[in-house]
Amino acid sequence: MPPPKDVVKIAIQMVGAIPQLIELQQTKPLAAVLKDVCDAWSLPNAERYALQYADGRQTYITESNRRDIKNGSILRLTTSPDQEAERLYIGIQSKNVDVKTDSLKKLASLSQDVTFAQEFISRNGLKQIYSIVEEGNDTGEMLAHTLKAFTELMEHDFVSWENLSTIFIKKIVSYVNMNAVDASIQQLSLSILENMVPTNRLLFELVKKEVTLDRLLTHLQVTNAELQLKAMALLIALLLSATDAERRDMMDYLREKNLRQFIHKNIIHSSEPLGDEMAHYLYVLQSVSLNLCEHRMKTSMDPYSQEQRDLLQSLRQTAFESESEVPAGTFSTERRRSLCAKEFRKLGFMNNSNPAEDLRRAPPGLLALDNMVYFSRNTPNAYSRFVLENSSREDKHECPFARSSIQLTLILCEILHIGEPCSETAQAFYPMFFGQDHFFEELFCICIQLVNKTWKEMRATQEDFDKVMQVVREQITRTLSLKPTSLELFKTRVNALNYSEILKLRQTERLHQEETLAVPVLELREKLKPELLELIRQQRLLHLCEGTLFRKISSRRRQDKLWYCRLSPNHKVLHYGDVEEGVQSPPIESLPEKIPVADMKMLLVGKECPHTKEKSSGKQNKDVLELAFSIVHDVEEYCLNFIAPTRYEFCLWTDGLNVLLGKEMTSERTQTDLDVLLSMELKLRLLDLENISIPDNPPPIPKPPSNLNFCYDFSHAEQ
């Protein structure tokens, strides 16, 4: 008979004693449980003791988390958090260096526990840590433990980062700026500053002033990957906290220092694989850089701005230079205006008498003008060839340069998500972005020539303009999905993907998507579905058995520690636990926590999850909501919360958990996989019917014969 829900069977250890095997009554006060345990070992003063997990993070057991204890858990009897906090509070003030160092080391370890952290902070323990940092000159092991303890204590959000003194901050900054200091101290210092920057404008200005971009670039160029990562994290935090003007100045300076080229050569193409966190920072750096175009994209052309009118006129003059060199007195004003209008029409402006009107639409606004001017100045031969080639065509067959440029700029802004806020978890960056300073403009130069090439291949007329631009969008997105490492490679691949190739791809995809709609085929689809759905269920459960690496996301830092979750091979228990960076697939025995599948009650997704409700609505991010899911187990108050690394993992995990709960798989991936499997299975089964039309209705059943004499009577043969 299974034990009651409020009883768990556990083991309790103590150094130098035989372990106790007890049945823990969850309804019994924890103080009474401790009293019984201490009495069994003849220990007085039970209030001085506490229970904590023997494995993993060794969290203290409290009334609030005791329901997380599972059958088979191993606990340890240890000094209570308040006693330990008091002992270490005294220890870190010791005059004996060894005692002080050991106390700080122990403090750094225990500070991960929220119960201990609360006790230590309540004794004004952070003030002692401030003193050690502010007054000490040590840069060795003691300081490393101090900074580690400080970081862990601040993680619990009991104290605001705004309370830090200027002296303390400048001391942390000095460790970042020192040359002869241990790398671990610099990593911790960079991490502290990274957490500090987003919380307050004054703190941002102080860190920005004290830690120069040159210093961060120095840290980025080291071989220590962890130090490089922390330096990148602080750089990103500074960029995200800066005003638009400050961000532009910082990006201009980084461009002067060739940061992109360094990243392209030494980080992206490093011999070491790129970690998830660095990939995210590169995505943010790309996004921040591209979003510098947002202001121009959203600004309409001002017809009264002399500067903007000069840029517009430069397009005409560059294209029709020889014609524009005619002396001013040769033509009347009216004749000259007529000539300009004609030239602007040849350039492809819709409103040739007032071309500024074409640029009043925002987006793409002035960004389109900037791109056209860049193309004309940096590739004048290609620009002149584009314009003159189309000027010599029939009116209806000419590719309008200006109209195409405006629409192409808008397409590139949409593809590259210019003007959209950075995602908290995305890692999708384009390696070629970091190989080129003027990435957006150079990409435009390649793509506008692609427009002209595709226009000719399609033998398009003015009425086909939208169709051409749709094909160009498809050419660009398909090529970008291949993640070319350089613009040259992008140019080669996008030009190879000509109109005829696009038509072939479309036809192939259409054949894959479109199934015969004959009634017999539809009936066959329905018969195949249960078998294929079962195959998908098995695949989902197999994926859960292999497990996935998840990241915990806190309200202040983007990503915290790593943890791993996997399903047992018999599909009866979910195992999970914290893991170190770099661990890919930990064995199931190394994951200390477990949830029996039988105890799982329901699956929550998105806004229903408790860990998304905890955050304020202002900090909510759409992509995090789309990746969040929780398992409710035992009683509804207890949940295991997940943030999936990708939408693909989200679909597989939510499907797998629904299978374990005996429910339908509801993710969009299920439908996609089912469609693919059905398509393959139908094609295999209908191979013999190729080029044979399948009737909508089955052939009529013939009437029964008048007699059955043609049947062979086996009974006579047996005799």
Automatic annotation (TrEMBL):
Answer yes or no on keyword Methyltransferase: no
GO molecular function terms attached to this record: SH3 domain binding
Instruction: Enumerate the Pfam families for this protein.
Output: ELMO_ARM, ELMO_CED12, PH_12
Question: Could you tell me which InterPro entries the record lists for this protein?
Answer: ARM-like (IPR011989), ARM-type_fold (IPR016024), ELMO_ARM (IPR024574), ELMO_dom (IPR006816), ELMO_domain-containing (IPR050868), PH-like_dom_sf (IPR011993), PH_domain (IPR001849)
UniProt keyword annotations, A-Z: Apoptosis, Phagocytosis, SH3-binding
Q: Where is the ELMO domain?
A: 307-480
Task: Say if the entry is tagged with keyword Amino-acid biosynthesis.
Answer: no
Question: What is an annotated GO biological process for this record, any one?
Answer: phagocytosis
Q: Which Gene3D superfamilies does the record cross-reference, listed alphabetically?
A: 6.10.250.810, Leucine-rich Repeat Variant (1.25.10.10), Pleckstrin-homology domain (PH domain)/Phosphotyrosine-binding domain (PTB) (2.30.29.30)
What is the role of the protein in this entry?
A: Involved in cytoskeletal rearrangements required for phagocytosis of apoptotic cells and cell motility. Acts in association with DOCK1 and CRK. Was initially proposed to be required in complex with DOCK1 to activate Rac Rho small GTPases. May enhance the guanine nucleotide exchange factor (GEF) activity of DOCK1.
The protein depicted here goes by the name: ELMO3 protein
Which lineage do the record's taxonomy fields give for this organism? Eukaryota, Metazoa, Chordata, Craniata, Vertebrata
**What gene is behind this protein?**
Elmo3
